[in-house]
Amino acid sequence: MKGDVRTRMSTEEADEDKQDDLELPFFDFATIVNATNNFSIENKLGEGGFGPVYKGIFVDGQEIAIKRLSQSSGQGLKEFRNEVILCAKLQHRNLVKVLGYCIKGKEKMLLYEYMPNKSLDLFLFESTQSKCLDWPVRFNILNAIARGLLYLHQDSRLRIIHRDLKASNILLDNDMNPKISDFGLARMCGSDQVEGSTSIIVGTHGYMAPEYAIDGLFSTKSDVFSFGVLLLEIISGKKNKAFTYLDNNHNLIDHAWTLWENGTPEKLIDACLENSCNIFEVVRCIQIILLCLQHHPNDRPNMTSVVVMLTSENALPSPKEPGFLIRRVSDEEGESSSNKHTSYSINEVTVSILNAR
């Protein structure tokens, strides 16, 4: 028995009698404890910004993943409720499906479909595992992510800005098909709204668009920038945040632009793709990436255009110099971000720290 199915959750921090319709099944705590062998270390899949994730198996054999909200997470309840509400409304083959939630006392959990190959970063940035990702697999992954993001921005019931798109938030099923996960930081917008602003900047440095990292301005175009960084990592097999070139403190974006300007973009390609890639296709993807990474949001394509560019051979516009995120944030943060709260990411885990710079 998987526990009673309900569609309401009480908010302990507010009026105990107040109930919110969340449109997701409720699972009782005892069922989850049994499925995870009391959250044993052997069943732990990883650690996210708001708590650990465990594998569970129901008595009928169904495998699940459970995100257990850390009790010490300062903003955890808000992000948890946000994700429950969002995931009840989102259904797409390239989004991780949420099966339900559990709340008992201070315990708050989300139940997801189990993704046996875990996250994309575990393949991309590990020398042995990266060899499993030949070019056809990577090209399928980047196209599927693009379609998932297009759904969020345009085709879902509400326009969704993810705000934390990165390799560790792309999960892979048994056939290496990708699904976007972790909507704790996402924002819902009206159907005619494409941007917003915040004084609390959350996300992962290395993937943030300049206008968001510096001024707190987020939009569908800031997601496009993050998508460009993600594609850059998929093609190169290197992390944007960790990459430095010739001791000049240039990040991967800077390096890609330098190669493009020098007419040698193929030097960006992961060495393990040498025997499987279509050079024309990869170089075209690099050009699309640079268009996504333009410094000014209006210069970036929307995801509709990106999907078309990825699936056609039409001529592409020439990119301008992209936003060199790490360098410019370092140079400008003293003036531009003095009144902003900022989140920092340690080891690619999203962590919100409410300290003004």
TrEMBL record:
Catalytic activity: L-seryl-[protein] + ATP = O-phospho-L-seryl-[protein] + ADP + H(+); L-threonyl-[protein] + ATP = O-phospho-L-threonyl-[protein] + ADP + H(+)
Lipid bilayer topology: Single-pass type I membrane protein
Intracellular or extracellular location(s): Cell membrane
Keywords, ordered alphabetically: ATP-binding, Cell membrane, Disulfide bond, Glycoprotein, Kinase, Lectin, Membrane, Nucleotide-binding, Receptor, Serine/threonine-protein kinase, Signal, Transferase, Transmembrane, Transmembrane helix
SUPFAM superfamilies found in the cross-reference section: Protein kinase-like (PK-like) (SSF56112)
GO molecular function: ATP binding; carbohydrate binding; protein serine/threonine kinase activity
EC number per UniProt: 2.7.11.1
GO cellular component: plasma membrane
Residue intervals of the Protein kinase domain: 39-316
One Pfam family hit: DUF3403
Gene3D superfamilies: Phosphorylase Kinase, domain 1, Transferase(Phosphotransferase) domain 1
UniProt keyword annotation of Transmembrane helix present: yes
Main location: membrane
InterPro entries, per database record: Kinase-like_dom_sf, Prot_kinase_dom, S-locus_recpt_kinase_C, Ser-Thr/Tyr_kinase_cat_dom, Ser/Thr_kinase_AS
Domain of life: Eukaryota
Protein name per the record: non-specific serine/threonine protein kinase
Source organism of the structure: Cajanus cajan
Top-level taxonomy: Eukaryota, Viridiplantae, Streptophyta, Embryophyta, Tracheophyta
